[in-house]
Write a structure and sequence with these properties.
The complex is a heterodimer of chains A (280) and B (319). By secondary structure, chain A is α/β, with parallel strands linked by helices. Chain A has nine helices and ten strands. The chains are: A alpha/beta (280), B alpha/beta (319).
């Protein structure tokens, strides 16, 4: 046994997201360590049936959970990032995009689609954390903007599922401006009197929290998600103290008045569908 | 003359010191050094021009942070009259990292709101180094709404190292406060002009930065993250800030080239702190020109043009 043991979980891509992990019969719960039978885990919306831990999952899973019979029509699936600034850090941004597309099978950190939820038409946009930390660049901003336009066209509610570290540094000021762009587009959705459901999942931080994720008519979160503006590491460095347990969790954010409610993933569809039908 | 000398400015200042020394000999010692002094003055002027016209992005960042640079309140007093500061968010408190109030630019009453840094340790503690808490953004929003009510244009001055990343800031909803401002500023029914006068760091800057026109002073920066933080995240070290500044393409000229800002305001040679009056005069001219053109638009035209402007921001490709 090691002398020192990490008490809290590190932030990293989870089993469910790592496409290169072969699909085994069993998965281990990240939180309680229970071995979970994979088929049962999937049936339970990727929630540990022992401790309730919500595995991080991507757009494919959310679409299949929320859209009736898992049927949906995706738009602008082929939209990809453009390296406008010829950005280079330890790697070229263009190479990073290419490698990520290859590794994840996704074209960007955001997808949007239309379909029905409990029989009612709806537009859902969802992020994939496995794509450069779900970071928001021009593609995400444009897809959210178009998703909002689609909802206005269909006169349907707009559901946004956030799961992101924040703005994408490699698109610098362009990605910063996506915060303004998405918020500006939301004024048009609001003007049209259409409901906006913002679902915050683990993790939702940075520029995403500081724009559309916090602007829902209904701000909804999954249990135990990390939700905040500044990341916990930065705050710890700033104040030079350890953070209290439970800081920046969904429960903390709800207690401080910024969430309407917290709902487990397997009850989310019912809860949102119910609200939608009341607002019709 | 600036007292704080940046590394790349040292050759100018050492030459200037030499000239000053010669001048004192010239006066006291009855030595005629005037031709030599003239020659060196010419040289120092050339040196100034060549250094300041070839600044790297990191050097611009340093100028944007120069401790003698004019801050929001300096510009307010240099550009406007009758400034009446209005405090508080009517909810939690008064954040001194953001100041604002009604003022007059000529005959035009405007609402001016900006980040405010301090000059020394004491005032910096009071101003929290220009890093607002949620109540700062909520105070700003209250003032924007007040301007809308009385149909007065809004002018914002951006100069912040970022929104404050503290524990209480999270508890009081830093993210929500900034998000709310982006949403509300996008649909304000009065002209909004935003000017970056120093540092424009990320969401903390954007939180008072959504408007019809975005202008930047010549030696300022505006990006999604500071070069230091970018270096620490992408290079896993604090030592790559110069490279990060280059990669982020965060200068006023860069942003103009990227089509994200509308205008660059020229600063006096060496930076705004060398001649704050001149800098303020240039900024005032730029702002009143923009205001003039915006006044021609109806409220509906104004808001729809603003939303259209932001909708167009972004570049992407297709597979």
């Amino acid at each position: 046994m090691a002398w020192f043991k990490r008490k809290e979980a590190n932030i990293s891509a989870t089993e469910a997201e790592k496409k290169d992990t072969p699909d085994g019969l069993w998965s281990k719960c990240e939180k309680c360590g229970t071995m979970l039978y994979r088929r049962q885990l999937v049936e339970n919306s990727h929630i540990c049936y022992k401790c309730g831990y919500h595995f991080r999952v991507g757009s494919e899973v959310y679409f299949s959970i929320l859209f009736d019979n898992g049927n949906y029509e995706e738009f602008d699936a082929g939209m990809i990032s453009k390296d406008m600034l010829s950005f280079v850090d330890t790697k070229k941004y263009s190479d990073r995009i290419r490698a990520t597309i290859k590794k994840t099978g996704l074209n960007d950190a955001c997808r949007y689609a239309t379909g029905t939820l409990n029989g009612q038409p709806v537009v859902i946009a969802c992020m994939d954390f496995s794509f450069i930390g779900g970071s928001m660049g021009s593609v995400m901003g444009e897809k959210i903007a178009r998703g909002i336009d689609k909802a206005r066209e269909l006169k349907s509610p707009f559901i946004m599922i956030s799961k992101s570290g924040g703005a994408r540094m490699m698109e610098a000021t362009f990605s910063l401006m996506q915060m303004a762009k998405t918020s500006a587009k939301l004024t048009q959705l609001s003007e049209a009197g259409l409901p906006y459901f913002s679902v915050l999942t683990d993790p939702t931080t940075g520029g995403v929290t500081a724009s559309f994720a916090m602007l829902g008519d209904f701000n909804i979160a999954e249990p135990g998600a990390l939700i905040g503006f500044a990341g916990p590491r930065v705050i710890r460095q700033t104040i030079g103290k350890d953070l209290p347990p439970g800081f920046q969790t969904s429960e903390f954010v709800q207690d401080h008045g910024f969430l309407d409610f917290i709902v487990p993933r397997n009850e989310m569809k019912e809860k949102i569908g119910n609200l939608m039908s009341m607002l019709k | 003359m600036a007292k704080v000398v940046l590394d790349f400015e040292k050759p100018i200042y050492s030459l200037q010191a030499k000239i000053d020394e010669m001048r004192s000999y010239h006066i006291e010692g009855n030595l005629d050094l005037s031709t030599e002094i003239d020659r060196l003055e010419k040289k120092v002027n050339e040196l100034r021009k060549s250094i300041y016209s070839n600044l790297t992005r990191w050097q611009r960042v340093q100028l944007a942070r120069h401790p003698e640079r004019p801050y929001t309140l300096d510009y307010i007093y240099l550009m406007f009259s009758n400034f009446t500061e209005l405090h508080g968010d009517r909810n939690f408190g008064d954040d001194k990292a953001i100041v604002g109030g009604f003022a007059q630019m000529g005959k035009q009453t405007v609402m001016v709101v900006g980040h405010q840094k301090g000059r020394d340790t004491k005032s910096n503690l009071m101003r929290n180094f220009g890093m607002p808490n949620p109540e700062g953004y909520r105070k700003a929003l209250r003032l924007f709404k007040l301007a809308e009510k009385f149909n007065k244009p809004v002018i914002t001055f951006i100069d912040t190292p970022g929104a404050f990343p503290g524990l209480e800031a999270e508890e009081r909803g830093q993210g929500e406060a900034i998000a709310r401002n982006l949403f509300e500023m996008a649909k304000l029914k009065v002209p909004v002009i935003c000017a970056v006068i120093g540092e424009g760091a990320s969401g903390g800057a954007l939180g008072i930065g959504v408007g019809d026109r975005l202008i930047m002073m010549e030696n300022t920066w505006y990006s999604v993250i500071s070069p230091e933080s970018c270096s620490s995240i992408l290079w896993h070290s604090w030592d790559y800030k110069e490279q990060a500044a280059e990669a982020l393409k965060l200068s006023a000229q860069d942003l103009l080239d990227q089509g994200l800002i509308d205008k660059i305001v020229e600063e006096p040679l060496g930076g705004a702190h060398h001649d704050p009056e001149e800098a303020a005069k240039n900024l005032k001219k730029a702002i009143s020109d923009e205001l003039k053109s915006l006044k021609k638009l109806s409220q509906e035209e104004l808001v729809s043009a603003r939303i259209e402007k932001y909708s167009k921001m972004g570049v992407y490709d297709y597979l």
